[in-house]
Amino acid sequence: GQSLEQPSEVTAVEGAIVQINCTYQTSGFYGLSWYQQHDGGAPTFLSYNALDGLEETGRFSSFLSRSDSYGYLLLQELQMKDSASYFCAVRDPDSGYSTLTFGKGTMLLVSP
Amino acid sequence: DTEVTQTPKHLVMGMTNKKSLKCEQHMGHRAMYWYKQKAKKPPELMFVYSYEKLSINESVPSRFSPECPNSSLLNLHLHALQPEDSALYLCASSQDLGRGEQFFGPGTRLTVL
After folding, report:
1. Tens of pLDDT along chain B (113 residues)?
2. How far is A78 from chain B (nearest CA, A)?
3. B93 touches chain A (CB under 8 A)
4. Nearest in space to A20 (alpha carbons), one of A6, A31, A32
5. CA distance A102 to chain B (A)
6. Which residues of chain A have a CB within 8 Å of the CB of B103?
7. Pairwise CA distance, residues A31 & A95, whole Å
8. CB distance B100–A91 less than 8 Å?
9. What span, in angstroms and rounded, lies between the C-alpha atoms of B90 and A50?
10. Does any CB of chain A come closer than 8 Å to the CB of residue B89?
11. What are A41-66's pLDDT values in tens digits?
12. Nearest chain B Cα distance for residue A31, angstroms
């Protein structure tokens, strides 16, 4: 089995930096993904970390520590359009790692 | 083409109706997925197809019937649904199974009356 914990809501102002944490408990682990979903829209892939360390893609970075079963998504220079839900996801060992299990999601609210 | 398309965008159906949702991708992906998503909840996996064969059925009621006519198309046939089946139905694809990156379609917003 597996479980993922992430905060339900985070608020920040435009131009700020925000970090969304994800801790996981799994019987096995291959990697941590992050997805963004705007209200009424589809999830969009942001990043995938299989190894420890920081991956940077523009204003977004994702970090993984396998020893701590922990990762985070870092959003810099926040913009209003970053207001969305953010899901962490792991490959599910119960399916032979062939599918993703999503966390409950973090709603990010960016204010002016 | 890096897009997954889904039709229709919205669907309203009665409990006795039969309808189908369609999904298409032309990225050469060999794995395709159906998810159900309720408001404020994460996507919940329903079915997985790999190389056009049903790989995983997450104990979904038989009123949902998936079909993969070819490597680019995925259908979800609906029959005798219940109001609690109202949700956003998402199709996704990935290069193959076990990828951290999946490409999602825009979804079909289904309302069952």
Report:
1. 669 999 999 999 999 899 999 999 999 999 999 999 999 999 999 999 999 999 888 889 999 999 999 999 999 999 999 999 999 999 999 999 888 899 999 999 999 99
2. 22
3. no
4. A6
5. 6
6. 45
7. 14
8. yes
9. 25
10. no
11. 999 999 999 999 999 989 999 999 99
12. 7
Structure tokens at B12: 């309203």
Rounded-to-5 percentages of helix, strand, coil across chain A: 5, 55, 40
B49 token code pair: 């197809």
Collect the ranges in chain A with pLDDT lower than 70.
1
Q: Among A33, A96, A103, select the one facing B100 at the smallest CB separation.
A: A33
Q: Which residue has the tokens 């199974």?
A: B97
Q: Which of A87, A91, A99 sits opposite B48 (nearest CB)?
A: A99
And the tokens for B71?
Answer: 């490597």
Distance of CA A19 to the CA centre of its chain: 9
